[in-house]
Amino acid sequence: DSGVTQTPKHLITATGQRVTLRCSPRSGDLSVYWYQQSLDQGLQFLIQYYNGEERAKGNILERFSAQQFPDLHSELNLSSLELGDSALYFCASSASSGNTIYFGEGSWLTVV
Amino acid sequence: AQSVTQLGSHVSVSEGALVLLRCNYSSSVPPYLFWYVQYPNQGLQLLLKYTTGATLVKGINGFEAEFKKSETSFHLTKPSAHMSDAAEYFCAVSVRGSGNTGKLIFGQGTTLQVKP
Question: pLDDT per residue over B47-91, tens digit each?
C-alpha cells in the first residue's frame, strides 16, 4: 500500500458526460501528480500541483482540469468525454521535488 | 528535453534465468532515474531509484540497476527470475526544475514473461 488513495476504482460513463476523479496523497506529501495510462499513449504526465498551486503541465487536454484543495487532496475533472478518454488515471504524490513519487492504484475510466 | 527508451517491449525468460531489462535515457541535466513495476490490475510500485552517489542501486525483490553515465543507461537486472516477477516494468527519469517540479517521464514499458 503506497498510501495514495484514489476513488472511484472503476467508472463507466457515456460520451459527452463529465466525471471527477479524487485523490488523497500520502500523509505529509505536498505534491500531487496526475498521469494517464492508455494502450496507445503509454504513461503520460498530465499535471502537477504543489501545496495548492499548479506547478507543471503536461499533455492535459483543455476538457480536463484539476485542482488541489487546502487539505491537499486533489480532483481531476474530465468533461465532454470521448471514447478515446478511456484509460487508467493515476494519482501520485511526493514530499517535494526530487523525492520518490508514490502512485495510487488508479481509477479505471471507461467511456461508452 | 528528457526522454526514456526501453529496448524491447516484451522480454521472455525461463524461471531461474537472468533478467535484463534495458533502459536508455536522454537528459540535459544529471538525472534522477527510477524503475517501477506494475502487476496486472495494480498501480505502479517503486523498485529502485538512483539520485546521486553509488551507481549500482539495489532495490526490492532482488532487483538492481546500474547507472552508466557514459552509456546513458540504467538497465535493470535480477540474477534469477521467479514466476512472481512476471509484470510490466517501467523506467523513468525525473524532470527536475525550479519551484518544486519533479514530474516523471516514463518509457513505454517492458512486459516480462517468466516461463516455468
Answer: 999 988 888 999 999 999 999 999 999 999 999 999 999 999 999
pLDDT at residue B9 tops 70:
yes
Comparing CB atoms, the residue among B46, B103, B109 nearest residue A48 is B103
Grid cell for residue B13? 525468460
Residues of A with CB under 8 A from a CB of B: 2, 4, 30-31, 33, 42-43, 45, 48, 50, 55-56, 58, 90, 92, 94, 96-106
Q: Output the CA–CA distances (angstroms, integers) from residue B67 to A6, A33, A99, B6, B48, in the order listed.
A: 33, 26, 18, 14, 12
